[in-house]
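Q: How would the structure tokens look for this protein?
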Amino acid sequence: MSLLESGESDGSVSLNKLMDGESCRPQSPGVQTPEMVDLVCRGGWPRIVSGTPVSAQRYLRGYLDDISRTDIAQVDDVIRQLRDRVDTNRMGDPVKLAVITATGVGVELPDGIAVIPATTLGP
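A: Here is the predicted structure in token form.
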């Protein structure tokens, strides 16, 4: 859910137009900076939109903890299998092994393997 959908934005700034290089003049947000920070940190997850900033932050921290315990561990197993299949007799030791994922959190594992979300790649 966007801030516009939840009634917390007037929609005066278009992300599509910004991405197309157009400038914009946003209206005054009508809230103070600390409240704006809470809105941005809370995000638009329907389950937490109606809660307090503290409960939203607690929920999101739990979500990130779950991701770090499950998703990264699963990727780690796959990465180790790939690393073990590299034929160093023919190619030499890899300088760096990186895996690009469609989603997830970027992390460098203790053995130097980098997990890179595709959304962080630039030209």
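Helices lie at 15-19, 33-42, 46-49, 53-85, 88-91.

The mean pLDDT is 75.

Upvote if useful.
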